[in-house]
Amino acid sequence: MMSRYSYASTRKREAKEQERQNQLRLARESAEESKARIEELKSAHKACSAPLDWRVLAASLLPAPVTLTHWAERSADRRTRLLSLFEVPSAQLPNMASAVAEDSDRFHSAQQAFQEEALEQADSVALAQGILQGDSKSYRRVLREISYNSMAPPGGIAVDFEIHSPHLVEAKITAQGSAILPPEVQTLTSTGKLSTKAMPRIQFVELYQDYVCSLVLRVAREVHALLPVKAVLITAYSADGLPALSPVLSTIIHRKQMESLPFDTLDPSDALDELQTRTNFKASRRTGAFQPIVAFSPSDVLFTEPASSLQSIIETANRLLEELE
């Protein structure tokens, strides 16, 4: 009797321990998902379309035309002549008509594929030539593809582009706002249990700021990657805590500045602070919303090489001093 009771107790303890481990595992997974979601919201800038070399595309050649190969017909002919040496009944010989039809079908399929590829290639060359000539219609086509295909950050955004010149594109973006951000944060206690609490106001405000700044950087990356512009003017609009949709962040990002940014490691808000940016987000800690600002206009964009860091300013000053000496 004692042995059976001991066995039953052991099984109960094992089942209880297994249940506890399952709960700890689920808690850990939930906390990791919460952390990953937060990181995702401020990491839109880490992805980008591959840069396009429009000169290479403009000079690309059309695909080689296809020809009728007669491969199946020749194969059937060889087999027929070989089998005829062994007096094989004609009914067992290859069907030449079927072979000819097979060659014809293969040729027509290849011809159709060639025509489709040739049309696509011709369209690509024409688009590339338009881009290199600064054609606004070609620019708009690429920008539409950025809006509909390339931009896929968490929550999504609406982007409206305006082409001011072949060197300057303006983007006006509207994020879904703070409604896309998680109101709660999940963490593990010292005992491994799941703790769910309302996200602290400071953390919420910082996440909101990084979310919008990350989207702005992503748009700038896409435009610079896909068009030969010198600068991108981007203004973000929000209605969070405001009576109407208002500009809350405006920045001008030149190509050389964009190329110098370490996108895999940068903090989105800090990166924009180092650039030509207007925002009043930090003044709204109480409400957790951006404050309206006066957005940059195209006339504010100067096509010089702006310093993107203190180091570049120092280097410029040293060069001037050397010239004076």
Reading the helices and strands in chain order gives HHHHHEEEEHEEHHEH
Q: What is Rg?
A: 32 Å
Could you tell me the strand content as a percent range?
5-15%
Low-confidence stretches: 306-310
Using the alpha-carbon principal axes, give the shape: flat
Strand order of the largest sheet: 1-2-5-6-7
Query: Helix count?
Result: 9
User: Structural class, from helix and strand content?
Assistant: alpha+beta
In which range does the helix fraction lie?
Answer: 40-55%
Largest sheet report = 5 strands, mixed
Mean pLDDT: 80
Beta strands, count: 7
End-to-end separation in angstroms reads: 103 Å
Give a quick set of tags describing it.
five-stranded mixed sheet; two-stranded antiparallel ribbon; 50% helix; flat; single chain; 325 residues; 9 helices; alpha+beta; 7 strands
Write a structural description:
By secondary structure, this protein is of the alpha+beta class. The chain contains 9 helices and 7 strands. The protein has a 5-stranded mixed sheet. The protein has a two-stranded antiparallel ribbon with strand order 3-4. A hairpin with a 2-residue loop joins strand 1 (157-165) and strand 2 (168-175). Helix 3 runs antiparallel to helix 4 (96-132), helix 4 (96-132) crosses helix 5 (136-150) and helix 5 crosses helix 6 (201-226). Residues 306-310 have low confidence and may be disordered.
